[in-house]
From TrEMBL:
Entry's Gene Ontology BP terms: amino acid metabolic process
Subunit structure, as described in the record: Homodimer.
Name by which UniProt lists this protein: Aminotransferase
Keywords attached to this entry: Aminotransferase, Pyridoxal phosphate, Transferase
EC number per UniProt: 2.6.1.-
Native source species: Rhodovulum bhavnagarense
GO molecular-function term, one example from the UniProt record: L-aspartate:2-oxoglutarate aminotransferase activity
Lineage: Bacteria, Pseudomonadati, Pseudomonadota, Alphaproteobacteria, Rhodobacterales
Residue ranges annotated for the Aminotransferase class I/classII large domain, each copy included: 31-392
Needed co-factor(s): pyridoxal 5'-phosphate
InterPro entries: Aminotransferase_I/II_large (IPR004839), AspAT/PAT-like (IPR050596), NHTrfase_class1_PyrdxlP-BS (IPR004838), PyrdxlP-dep_Trfase (IPR015424), PyrdxlP-dep_Trfase_major (IPR015421), PyrdxlP-dep_Trfase_small (IPR015422)
UniProt superkingdom: Bacteria
Family the UniProt entry places it in: Belongs to the class-I pyridoxal-phosphate-dependent aminotransferase family.
């Protein structure tokens, strides 16, 4: 009899965390490595947010809170949804967890039964399928390739829905591609969902505020009010507010689902950090002007990375609408051999050879469900990005 649970056989460790860890280990060993795997801003948390956390400590706000969030934070979240998305929620419809991942996980654990299907467009965030599997459900992967700008078409969504479909996971702007759906594109998908009243929508809006050029963010429950009662709208303070380590995510949806998620959380982690919750109150209620300033930096980096990668032989890199990732195709590199003798049979071989031969750590596309490609996070310095892209160009130029 195995000591470990059979559940573990259904999942694998996060590839993005693995790449970041490997890059850190190589750096610690003295190797010249540039890591482009981490999905977190390189900006510091805003000073007013840090000050709010310190003030909370000084006030003695160091005790247990309500399991799924402080009343003050739930109120701030309700205000945010009304202000930014024209969505009205009460505190009973809000769940706060230890990071956005926990709120998604809680919802899936609270709702999925064996045989339930969850539609996940690919490329996808690496954790979606594994969380579905942990919850006992079945991931249904639907490819949305470079030919549709990494966006799921209404036709593909319609074709994937079956009587067993329970959830459709929607992520815009996307990790890993940065692709953002316009309001019309969201409406085309919600029109499909309105024809299938048994399908719920899990909208992961974590990159909502990280958008560029003239792109305007829209979320499904805002675009189609008819989906309000079967949509869980998920967000957090990690990306826009540079608070990844604070671990505060939140979700809004029907009260009965929120209550079920709270029951699950009460028997797992209980409440998120009280200090981080007070910091999140300030993040949501305080000044927002730094977001535009940060986005200007991200846009400059995006444009540089896209230009430099498109100059690399065998690489095609679309321009994303948001987040801080690009997802270039390496179709033109497959079948070639690197200067170090590695046969580039797939994107994992490409990423391995790039790390070993040029010291650039990227995440291979198979981890996100769509190959041949790789993900670059441009949430690092201009200097690092320029040097990394130069090395990628050199690597590709020597493929034969």
């Amino acid at each position: 009899m195995s000591f470990l649970s059979a559940t573990l056989a259904r999942v694998k460790p996060s590839p993005t965390i693995a790449v970041t860890t490997k890059a850190r280990e190589l750096k610690a060993a003295g190797k010249d490595v540039i890591g482009l795997g981490a999905g977190e801003p390189d900006f510091d948390t805003p000073q007013n947010v840090k000050d709010a956390a310190k003030a909370a400590i000084d006030r003695g706000e160091t005790k247990y809170t309500a399991v799924d969030g402080l009343p003050e934070l739930k109120a701030a979240i309700c205000d945010k949804f009304k202000r930014d998305n024209n969505l009205s929620y009460t505190p009973a419809q809000i769940s706060v967890g230890s990071g956005g991942k926990q709120t998604l996980y809680n919802a899936l654990m609270a709702t999925l039964n064996p045989g339930d299907e969850v539609i996940i467009p690919a490329p996808y965030w690496v954790s979606y399928p594994d969380m579905v599997l942990l919850a006992g459900g079945t991931p249904v992967i639907v490819e949305a390739g470079i030919e549709t700008a990494f966006k799921l078409t209404p036709q593909a969504l319609e074709a994937a829905i079956t009587p067993k479909t329970k959830w459709f996971i929607f992520n815009s702007p996307s990790n890993p591609t940065g692709a953002g759906y316009t309001r019309d594109e969201v409406k085309a998908l919600t029109d499909v969902l309105m024809r299938h009243p048994h399908v719920w929508v899990m909208s992961d809006d974590m990159y909502e505020k990280l958008v560029y050029d003239d792109f305007v963010f829209s979320t499904p429950a805002e675009v189609e009010p008819g989906l309000y009662d079967r949509t869980l709208t998920c967000n957090g303070v990690s990306k826009a507010y540079a608070m990844t380590g604070w671990r505060i995510g939140y979700a809004a949806g029907p009260a009965h689902l929120i209550k079920a998620m709270g029951t699950l959380q009460s028997q797992s982690t209980s409440n998120p950090s009280s200090i981080a919750q007070w910091a999140a109150v300030e993040a949501l209620n305080g000044p927002q002007d730094f977001i535009a300033a940060n986005n200007a930096v991200f846009k400059r980096r995006r444009d540089m990375v896209v230009d430099m990668l498109n100059a690399a032989p065998g690489i095609t890199c679309p321009v994303p609408e948001g987040a801080f990732y690009v997802y270039p195709s390496i179709a033109g590199c497959i079948g070639k051999t690197s200067a170090g003798g590695t046969k580039i049979e797939n994107d994992e071989a490409f990423a391995t050879a790039l790390l070993e031969e040029k010291g650039v750590a990227v995440v291979f596309g198979a981890a996100f469900g769509l190959s041949p490609a790789f993900r670059v996070s441009y949430a690092t310095s201009d200097e690092n990005l320029r040097e990394a892209c130069t090395r990628i160009q050199e690597f590709c130029a020597t493929l034969t």
